[in-house]
Design brief:
The protein is α+β, with helices and mostly antiparallel strands. The strands form four sheets. Strands 12, 13, 14, 15, 16, 17, 18 and 19 form an eight-stranded antiparallel beta sheet that branches. It has a four-stranded antiparallel beta sheet with strand order 2-3-4-9, with no helix packed on it.
Length: 424
Amino acid sequence: MNKEMSETLIRVGPGTKMGNLMRRYWVPALLSSEIAEPDGPQVRVPLLGEKLLAFRNTDGRACLISEFCSHRGVSLYFGRNEENGIRCAYHGVKFDGDGRCVEVPSSPQACSRMHIKGYPCVERGGIVWAYMGPPEKQPQPPELEWCTLPREHVYVSKRLQYSSYLQAMEGGIDTAHVSYVHRYEVDNDPMHKGVKALDYIKADGNVVFEIEKMPFGLSLFGRRMGEPDSYYWRVTQWLFPWFTLIAPFGDHALGGHVWVPIDDYSCWAWSINWQPSRPLNAEEVAAMDAGLGIHVEYESPGSFVPKSNRDNDYLMDRVAQKEKRAYSGVFGFSAQDYSLQESMGPIQNHEAEQLLPTDKAIVMARRMLHEAALNLEHGEEPPALDAQAQRVRPAGVLLPRDQDPLAWAKENLTDSVNKPVFTL
């Protein structure tokens, strides 16, 4: 990847090529629970290089506006959430949930020139999603499977990651690393242990990939040795522009991530588990609350900073590494991933990379994002705006060695609602 391509992919602020592209999709902004009460406390939301403020207005609607008052630039975080709007604590200027100025006590005639940014929001899957692009181009709300299920079927968390969204997301695309960095954790984590697929993953680190370009992005087919007459196929997806889906293990919940830029140097890493056909049980929820599986334990409540973080070397345990209890010495699936991704620096040196065949999907995703960003500049509509294309499901499956996995996936994983969950 040359410098121009790297710069295009990484820079996400207003007016940048990638920033303009990402603003054409619904953006996960914050958990609905962060603004649980009408007229409750507002929350700062840094997103795509913008400093925003979220609140729930008197009517119960989730709102997202610029953080700063247009009068003197004061942060509306210190304002009053009242009567369907935020009133600046400095001079009483008031803004509604769309960013319109509705009152200037000292100069009522100034209202029409005092508006600030406001972005439309929808709530799905326990998340407040914002649309930050041209109003006339607003797409349908997200239709990922977990967005459409009853709340008790879904568990959502988020964490702060100190790296670009790109290198975080590429970790989600890269399924080859599972045989290494997560090798010992899978035997003990309650969200993964006790399933046959783990034997195939640990026994065969030489995964062979087939990648299929799809309307939603990419389908990744990782082939490992299965039984004497079969291959174990781990089928995952990258959905344009920032979703990754995780193949389930046994009867454990399905999983996925969303990798959303805060700015060029950090991102929100969203983690989702869901059960399509039943509510999550108490044991599953307790494990997720404890930060197990793909979730994390926080440094402090509400901080979204993981307890294992760069300031404490991710609580690395060299004895556990030597004793083969943690491959890298770091415990926790997410911590094992983000510790390595953050170790590259906030923005890795892409020009120095020496890529391998297992990186094929990463290369394809980079090219697709880069091409879409450049094409948008020339008036071509972005891909995967049709929300129906998001209704796809990951899988882990044993197939006869002569069976085409791409044909199998097209029949069983596309438009997957009400279809069986394929897992081992």
